[in-house]
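One such given next:
>
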Amino acid sequence: MTIPRRQFAFAASSSGRSYAIGGIDDDGNELFDVEYYDSDLDQWIQIVGIPEARSASSAVGDDNGNVLVFGGAINGTIADTVFCYVAIEDSWVKLTPMPVPVRNSVAVFSGGSFFVLGGTSMDGPVAIVQVYDLATGIWSVGTDLPEARYSHAAVVDALERIFVIGGYDINVKRHRPFTTVNA
């Protein structure tokens, strides 16, 4: 990457680009900066920054080459904001806020919906599964994860099952095995 960063959102889009979004720089500042990796040029390319600097957010690409960014931290406050990077226009659009602000969550796209799984709210780790329908702009709440967790990963398989892997739980703050969620 052209900018050293940590606690940034990372997402791959259907166009084959991999994006690094926001995060914290070496001086501890939250970043607006966004860049993607161009495999043809073998280099990172900076693009228009996200409208609000943030760290610890989650991101995922959709089927149209766009990337959605969910929540995160802004100056120590946990955000409910959602932004969509519209790749064809190289611009950001603010979408409907999340019902529960979270950071250190994970997001996946499956069956036309975005799933924001777990994370940390102002009250601590959560098990909530927040579901966003991009077509209607409406949020709903799915079945909770079996336990609260944060700083985890997730993947969707060919049967559209969501596997939540690792992270920390609320009780003993240790790494956790995987959990399956039906999309």
In short: The mean pLDDT is 92. The first strand starts at residue 9 and ends at 12.
